[in-house]
## 1
Amino acid sequence: DQQVKQNSPSLSVQEGRISILNCDYTNSMFDYFLWYKKYPAEGPTFLISISSIKDKNEDGRFTVFLNKSAKHLSLHIVPSQPGDSAVYFCAASELYNYGQNFVFGPGTRLSVLP
Amino acid sequence: NAGVTQTPKFQVLKTGQSMTLQCAQDMNHEYMSWYRQDPGMGLRLIHYSVGAGITDQGEVPNGYNVSRSTTEDFPLRLLSAAPSQTSVYFCASSFRNSDLTDTQYFGPGTRLTVL
């Protein structure tokens, strides 16, 4: 059973609009969450993270929201740009667990249309 | 810095063959790991190492061996390749931040096909 779920395999958004990518988790021990971005033929690259003591973290056009009671997080990209077209992975781990073995979701493919 | 490097980029094996996927990092990171990515499955942890001489199993370790003789290198060995091991393999290394979070860097991946 997947501990980290991304129920939308794909998402298309018009350039300049908001992209919202969702992620749900089942393990209540998870307290650190990350988003990775992956282009074809490249490895994932870290985008933004949030720990469970916060409910929001911003970095430029990217904001991650965490709802612990719902075990749900979302990534907002505003405004969306064609270069944001990629696969986005949500990942979760237990903070303070040395090595922090991350559990990844299956990914959401974002297409930003010009 | 080259970051995390992986070789080869592509490999085709026949069932039963063995091979080693190479991974190296030049950032002096203690923690390294191997993942496989399959369609609809995300990245799944195969093996990881918290330092030279120390390795442990991840979620899907069967059919793979690892060793960590140096901080820089973390090779992944397929003992007897099976079609189920057809996948894209990613190596990663990470360091611990002052707030005890980890920042993880991935290599470009090795696409393996087992016939």
Note: Residues 62 and 77 of chain A are 5 Å apart (CA to CA).
## 2
Amino acid sequence: DTGVSQDPRHKITKRGQNVTFRCDPISEHNRLYWYRQTLGQGPEFLTYFQNEAQLEKSRLLSDRFSAERPKGSFSTLEIQRTEQGDSAMYLCASSLAGTGGAVGTDTQYFGPGTRLTVL
Amino acid sequence: AQSVAQPEDQVNVAEGNPLTVKCTYSVSGNPYLFWYVQYPNRGLQFLLKYITGDNLVKGSYGFEAEFNKSQTSFHLKKPSALVSDSALYFCAVRDKGGGSQGNLIFGKGTKLSVKP
């Protein structure tokens, strides 16, 4: 399967613990996005990378959240000192932003998500 | 600010009947609009997008969407619904405000239920 993959698929942790999620994008894609989805809501943007550069962060991304994309390949999202309000599905998406199309026209392809439960 | 509204939480359709899932948007400038489908415990699957050109966009699994600039709508349609179409559908617009060029802004989703 050459789609976007995420690991783990499920994570249960206790409040106050740190967790880290991994996303492997489609191999030739240069953009990578993180979203958070809570029950009954659409996904909400957290941050995105173009290659290894983190170009934008949402105000939802508190200081306890950090994301990296070393070497412009896979990405990790870490949540420190988890809170119960962090319980959600964390989705990763990737896209190929080329030079031919206008900005924002690239299609984002999503992974299966990591479901986080904070007890 | 860019926004998307899906006015129906749930749409119920009989198998074989046409279906419509509604979406309206509010953007500055030309909108880039997307539809995704989500099956239980799975990520979002891309269905189709409108960037420019023909107002009727054809996508995966027999779905299509009609862009209407005057009504600021981008309704998802299918001529004949299948039970397997039952899922959660999300409309999204590309955020081009405040210098953002990347992220999608999603509606709350519409649950489609197709009965045999």
Note: Chain B touches chain A through 27 residues (CB under 8 Å).
